[in-house]
Design goal:
Order of helices and strands: HHHHHHHHHHHHHHHHHH
Strand content: under 5%
Number of domains: 1
Distance between the termini: 22 Å
Shape: globular
Structural class: mainly alpha
Oligomer: single chain
């Protein structure tokens, strides 16, 4: 039992990924709500082109969510009651509370009966505020997580086949959605209009990114070594992907004369390729950062990134309130002599900075820290210090993915994936020490 409950080493790479994704989500909403700054069609199109380039946020969010869950729970006994006891306090409770807050702010003056009815519907659908569907997707993934872990266990030795099939399904799904459901023969049908309204908050719409996150967790040492050795592939891939994305956007606007709402859709086939390129590039940067360690064995700037990562869940929940206030009172007071880019950037800084600051303050207040999905910081520090008495981390590698030296620690036991594979094919190694049973820190919030 002790072995099953032991925490695995903290994956430092997830901290900047969480932080940057949350900041990018705020950027998407700021850009979308400040288009009126522009007084020309070209300005509007340029701002929307940037919005399109930031439409990787859902996919990266889902990738990180799946990675963290698989990293923590794969190969362990899955105690469902204990799992939901933690997730209810860490995710479900703040989601419900903030949903009620947004309903009170956005639809004031409702009768008690109407308020209760609206609250139930909005909590189930994520309609209380435009950004809360991110949390709804997380809850859906937690519901199916036992089945997802069981599926991964069955297909763990066939990553390329499973990911290839999943990728093709994702492209076909987005193609059918984009050309039939959003604008096509199904767009005017009653039932399909309902589906179109809620499709962005249905978990299976993003199935490839959950698969990608899960398999990356299983084979993280190999993935990390590849990225550090051949990171230029990820960099070139992103440059090519963003060039294709913007060329596609220009053709849609200038040649096919399609509406901005349609051209900026997240659910279109080109986004499958683009989001994959962004994930690989962002993970490469995170791996490069994590491989440069200080004397304490942690990456440079770890405390800052970790603090921002802890606050990122609160940023998702809070930033819409702050952005609404900024749009109502601050943005109209900005001098119009300032360039549009400056005003947009200042609005983003205030929105993301305010949300992060409020989240950090709540993290240090007992009980209220639960509003941003965390235990009180004093308790978490005590648990962290207790776990760090026996430090353990992933093998250190240099910027090219080569081992940097031996780590002074006890030998790491084989993961469940290694044990099964070595029994069947002892001459081959399938994974490294990622899923070892010991460790000091969970990757999940």
């Amino acid at each position: 039992m002790k072995e099953q409950q032991a925490r695995r080493p903290h994956v430092y790479e997830l901290d900047p990924l969480r932080t940057i994704t949350a900041a990018s989500v705020v950027a998407v909403h700021v850009l979308s709500f400040t288009v009126f700054f522009n007084h020309s069609d070209v300005g509007v199109q340029v701002q929307n082109a940037i919005v399109v380039a930031l439409h990787f946020t859902r996919e990266v969010f889902i990738f990180v969510t799946a990675f963290a869950l698989v990293y923590v729970y794969y190969g362990k006994h899955f105690a469902l009651k204990r799992f939901w006891a933690r997730r209810s306090l860490g995710v479900l409770l703040p989601y419900c509370i903030w949903s009620v807050v947004y309903i009170l702010v956005n639809v004031p003056g409702q009768s008690p009966v109407t308020f209760v009815k609206t609250s139930i519907i909005d909590i189930l659908t994520g309609n209380a505020s435009y950004q809360l569907y991110y949390i709804l997707l997380t809850l859906q993934f937690y519901i199916i997580s036992p089945l997802f872990l069981l599926f991964l266990k069955r297909v763990a030795h066939h990553p390329w086949k499973v990911l290839a099939v999943s990728f093709v399904i994702q492209v076909v799904l987005f193609y059918a959605d984009y050309h039939l459901l959003q604008q096509g023969t199904l767009a005017s049908s009653g039932i399909w209009q309902f589906v179109a309204q809620y499709q962005n908050r249905f978990i299976l719409v993003y199935q490839f990114y959950f698969m990608l996150g899960g398999f990356t967790a299983l084979y993280f040492e190999q993935v990390r070594s590849f990225l550090l050795r051949d990171g230029w592939i990820a960099a070139c891939g992103l440059m090519a992907a963003i060039a294709v994305l913007w060329l596609h956007f220009v053709l849609q606007i200038r040649v096919y004369q399609e509406s901005l709402g349609y051209t900026t859709s997240v659910l279109q086939p080109v986004m499958v390729f683009y989001s994959l390129a962004v994930i690989l590039f962002a993970l490469w940067l995170a791996c490069r950062w994590a491989c440069h360690k200080n004397r304490d064995g942690r990456p440079r700037g770890y405390r800052t990134w970790h603090m921002l990562s802890d606050a990122s869940f609160g940023v998702y929940l809070i930033h819409a309130l702050i952005l609404t206030a900024l749009l109502k009172w601050v943005v109209p007071a900005m001098p119009e002599v300032l360039p549009v880019a400056v005003r947009v950037f200042l609005t983003w800084c205030m929105a993301v900075g305010g949300a992060a600051g409020m989240s950090m303050i709540l993290l240090h207040i007992p009980v209220l820290s639960r509003l941003v999905g965390r235990e009180h910081s004093v308790y978490r520090k005590a648990v962290r210090k207790a776990g760090e008495k026996i430090p353990e981390e992933l093998p250190q590698v240099d910027h090219q993915g080569q081992p940097q030296g031996e780590i002074n620690r006890a030998p790491t036991p084989l993961s469940p994936l290694q044990v099964v594979h070595s029994a069947n094919q002892p001459e081959q190694a399938i994974t490294g020490n990622l899923l070892s049973k010991k460790g000091v820190k969970s990757a999940l919030p």
